[in-house]
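Records of this kind hold a single protein each, on a pair of labelled lines. With that in mind, the following record should read easily:
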Amino acid sequence: MMNDSKARYGSITRFFHWSMAILVSWQFLKFFDRINDGEHWVGETLVPWHISIGSLILVLIVLRLGWTVKEKGNRPEHGSIIGVLAKIGHGLLYVALVLMPVTGIFYMVGNGYGLSAFNLEIIAKGEEVSWLINIGSLHSYIAWGLLFLVAGHIGMAFVHQFIIKDGTLKRMM
């Protein structure tokens, strides 16, 4: 089943969810770059893909938002306060997932580095643009916020599975 239903999320929604979960987890490896100036396996092997993966996440989040709007009426619903809190939490996740790559791009372009992803030049190197640097400097703060949102998201999935026992996690598997 490709589309969502009231009982279960469809394969496209699950593809977006789990592929982005993997890519965002990869992006969090950038935190290890702070250790020993990135002079270790993670810093030398996985972190160099940070900009390319971030660009891919931006494309996926735009597609995912479009898919979410299209499937809005088909989604499983929760009429309680938990449902309202879930919508707020998911909304904050979406906002952070859009802002992360956008502020990263602003930082790179603002500093005159340009933007290349997967060895393709997307934006050429240029002059420094201070207002882009200022907005781009929020990238690290948003990363920490996203980390906490993801931890809360995972925590609530386990609460739904083992305490509330409402089958939420099963609908995403």
Q: What stands out?
A: The helical segments are 11-28, 41-46, 50-70, 81-110, 130-136, 139-164, 168-172. The chain has one domain: 11-172. The first helix runs from residue 11 to 28. The chain has a mean pLDDT of 91.
